[in-house]
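Protein modeling request. Please complete all fields; requests missing the sequence field cannot be processed.
Requester role: graduate student
Desired output: 3D structure, token encoding
Chains: 1
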Amino acid sequence: MTDERQKMLNVYLQEYGKLKDEQAQRIGFRDNLLYVTLALFGTVLAFALGEKANPYGLLVLPWVSLVLGWTYLVNDQKISAIGRYIRYKLVDKVGGIIGKTNTDIESIFGWEIAHRGDKRRKQRKIEQLIIDEIAFVFSGLAALIAFRHMVSQVNGAIQLLCLVELVLLIVLGVEILRYADLAKGR
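Delivered output (186 residues):
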């Protein structure tokens, strides 16, 4: 291998390392968002339904769902994008330098492809999709429904707020569904 090719290979391997570091960091952050969501929901519910109940506090929960759900979705999308880049671009770049053909290209960074071929992957991804929808969409919708059952008369501004929250939660639910990566293989 020439010096120039060796330098390019080193650059690609460093890029791979940095991408994996970013991916791991984003995975940790994304996964912790579920715990943060649960903690915030518990706190707000204690305020809204506690000893000195204030059902208007329930209107905070859809915003918590939206902000944390969107942050979760963006990080999840970036995690998947990094994986796609490694599987489709970086593997080909490294393969070109080390002389791998298309038939044996999957042996480069093999784990990036192998873990996606597991026979239970689709089932796990569907289960995760359901959990994500419950945590970030249905919980916000439940708060809106509970609020409407607890408070029968609301002014126009509160009705508008509830409508905006409802629409945004539906949009978030659709986006979570759109970005679910259920595919197998490379």
